[in-house]
Amino acid sequence: MHTGSTTEHTERKPGRTAGGTADLSAQLRGMWAAVAGSWGDQAAYLDARGAVVGERMLELSRPQPGERVLELACGPGGLGLAAARRVAPGGQVVLSDVVAEMTSIAATRAAALGLGNVTTCELDLERIDQPDGSYDVVLCREGLMLVPDPARAAREIWRVLRPGGRAALAVWGPRDRNPWLGAMFDAVSAQVGAPVPPPGIPGPFSLHDAGRLAGLLGEAGLSDVSVKEVSVPLRAASFEDWWSRGSTLAGPLARRLASLPPDAVEAIRAHARAAVSVYEAAGGLEIPGVALLAGGRRADAPRTC
Known about the structure:
3-stranded antiparallel β-sheet
């Protein structure tokens, strides 16, 4: 894992050893590296899927010409690429992810668009290897919820912001209000008799509580913290369209499905098909989804760690 360049926090969560944290981080890296190819193949779809939340994040953080922007957990980099246009001329955007396989995809996309103000690097949210106060804006869409210690990651986001800098983050809301993904997880859990994601693995709904999310950001030192719900239904042309994308893009799900025999996978598909049949609409499926959009800024006064 990367080491913070200036500020290093050494506290651990109760019951979690340094070795255990390292093992979990390595496991998570491997999981996301394994699905990076699918994320690259589906980059245009992911841009469209995240367009509403991404636009709201940019409105909230207000990147301006000449400013420096860091996108964390960038995946194919669609959000940061949109920010790059807003900070031109004179501004810069750094697209980062915990695995190089993702940043390679983002770099290729930036080059194809001719965005000369975009660079990429591999960064860990919990130890952001960048100097203190080096960014005007930090963006993180659907990443904070997937780290073992989100409180530490929030402190790191505060640290790399300049005084007056803005952060905009998005995570998924409650599982029962996001059946577009929850139905897949539930179908796998019913078949294997164990929860998905497994205990100890941070999952997409781990920060579903708006109060907890606001608390994490406030305790990290951010001021003017706000958390709002954003409706983000998923529309798919068919069950097959929904299933094929979701089952290859969701890291914990893709790994689990790959380990199962074909008959078990078919049973899971049947369970999932029944669950989402209630969302059939003209032209396919329209499945509810809710994201939490959070923002805050680093106050001018230094924070005492």
